[in-house]
Design brief:
With about 300 residues, this protein is of the alpha+beta class. About 20% of the residues lie in helices and about 25% in strands. The chain contains seven helices and 17 strands. The strands form four sheets. It has a nine-stranded mixed β-sheet with strand order 1-2-3-4-15-7-17-6-5, with helices on one face. A three-stranded antiparallel β-sheet has the order 14-8-16. Strand 11 and strand 12 form a beta hairpin. The longest helix has 14 residues. The protein binds succinic acid. The site of succinic acid has 9 residues, from strand 16 and strand 17.
Length: about 300
């Protein structure tokens, strides 16, 4: 299923065909807010569930307001899309495994991992297919999250770049992000437990068949198969060839035409397709509290 939203303006503000869910697109590219829907009910209704999945694939990130749901309901909703996974560094709720607590308080350590464009956990061989994030406590102002459409980022690349990156594969690691502030022994232990993953630079969406630019500035460290005779005459060619190309690709996430920005309220929920997007949590609120709970749904191996 590939839909060009700009070719279908009726979809900008519509009631879903199959259910009573009302849909409002938030940009011409990515993101929609869904109304008249309660996630507790979706988890129990196969038609609603199928419609939410369809809208997720179409808009890549979908938003729900006023979801006064319990943690068990949050988990139950996400579980309808697959198994959940914990995070090796950010802890989960003690009574709800799989519900990762992204809590920032004035006392939080200064490390910041979320305010950098990233697709969650690409350092895994099998990164999550999607994440369901609920706002438990908001700062009075600020703390928005942004998402970027990496299908659109791929689609709009110049054709010669598309041809050049088609065969490339890249390394993704946890060490230089979540491990960076750790003492060396702890960092090496983290890397041993979660060795680097290798993924195609252009992945294919397993459900829609769309091509996705799949490198990100937080976890992608280098191309693993760039330095071939076709690209490198002398050692001198290596750095400008591969480093500048990777940095150019990573920078595509900065293009506002591919982005949506969401202002949180307590009990707002975002559900994003982690295969086709990156996100960035804007840290303009410290020293206030911001408490988010995230269920990451196990995905499949990128191809
Ligand atoms: C994340 O990076 O997965 C969390 C985003 C957020 O806290 O807004």
């Amino acid at each position: 299923m590939t839909q060009d939203r700009r070719a279908a303006p009726a979809l900008m503000r519509a009631t879903s065909r199959a259910t009573s869910i009302r849909v409002e697109a938030l940009t011409g590219t990515i993101g929609a807010e869904l109304f008249d829907v309660h996630l507790g009910a979706v988890a129990e209704d196969d038609d609603l569930l199928a419609e939410v999945r369809r809208l997720l694939l179409q808009y890549r990130v979908i938003f729900f307001r006023d979801q006064d749901i319990t943690r068990a309901e949050h988990v139950a909703f996400a579980r309808r899309f697959g198994e959940l996974e914990d995070h090796p560094v950010v802890g989960s709720h003690p009574d709800h495994p799989g519900l990762v607590q992204i809590y920032k308080t004035p006392e939080s350590p200064p490390e910041r991992n979320e305010n950098s464009w990233h697709t969650d956990a690409t350092w895994r061989d099998v990164p999550p297919m999607g994440c369901v994030l609920r706002c438990v406590e908001c700062p009075p102002v600020g703390g928005d999250t942004m998402w970027v459409d990496m299908v659109e980022a791929y689609r709009q690349l110049p054709e010669d770049i598309k041809a050049k990156i088609e065969p490339l594969r890249a390394r993704h690691g946890i060490e230089a992000s979540f491990g960076a502030a750790m003492p060396i022994e702890k960092r090496l232990a983290l890397k041993e437990k979660y060795p680097d993953a290798e993924h195609p630079v252009v992945r294919t969406h397993p459900e829609t068949g769309e091509k996705i630019l799949f490198v990100n500035g937080s976890f992608t460290t280098h191309f693993v198969n760039y330095n071939t005779p076709a690209n490198v005459r002398f050692g001198l060619d290596k750095a400008p060839g591969s480093t500048q190309l990777l940095s150019y690709l990573v920078s595509q996430a900065n293009i506002p035409e591919y982005q949506v920005r969401f202002r949180w309220r307590k009990n707002s929920v975002a559900f994003w397709d982690n295969r086709s997007t990156q996100h960035y949590a804007v840290m303009d609120y410290p020293p206030c509290h911001r408490k988010m709970e995230r269920a990451a749904i196990v995905g499949d191996r990128p191809f």
